[in-house]
């Protein structure tokens, strides 16, 4: 009787172990398939991301170069305005002197 019970339990245990093993293999295959699909689907996105990142780096460099160019042009404009103002003052002073000289010459 005890041998029968023991054998029955061993058979049940073996059956459960086999069932568990089958389920484990099934879920492992499901997981592997899901992982493969995820990697395939995201490979395109990863490549697109890398492409956009490279384009962003190029754009950032172009923006930096343009900003330096704008700064240089702004500085040149400021220098030219200063030079124009200086020339205007100088010409006004020369004109004033010429007027004074012409008035004193006429008198």
UniProtKB/TrEMBL annotation:
This is Uncharacterized protein. The keyword Coiled coil applies. InterPro entries: DRC1/DRC2 (IPR039750). Residues 35-101 form a coiled coil. The lineage of its organism: Eukaryota, Metazoa, Spiralia, Lophotrochozoa, Mollusca. GO terms for biological process: axonemal dynein complex assembly; cilium-dependent cell motility; regulation of cilium movement. The keyword Iron-sulfur does not apply. It is found in: Cytoplasm, Cytoskeleton, Flagellum axoneme. It comes from Magallana gigas. One of its GO terms (cellular component) is axonemal dynein complex. Its main location: cytoplasm. Keywords: Cell projection, Cilium, Coiled coil, Flagellum. It comes from the Eukaryota.
């Amino acid at each position: 009787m005890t041998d029968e019970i023991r054998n029955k339990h061993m058979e049940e245990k073996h059956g459960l172990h086999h069932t568990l093993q089958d389920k484990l293999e099934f879920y492992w295959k499901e997981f592997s398939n899901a992982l493969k699909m995820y990697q395939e689907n995201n490979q395109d996105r990863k490549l697109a991301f890398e492409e956009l990142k490279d384009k962003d780096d190029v754009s950032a460099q172009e923006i930096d170069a343009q900003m330096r160019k704008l700064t240089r042009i702004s500085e040149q404009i400021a220098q030219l305005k200063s030079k124009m103002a200086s020339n205007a003052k100088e010409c006004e002073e020369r004109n004033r002197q010429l007027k004074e000289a012409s008035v004193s010459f006429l008198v």
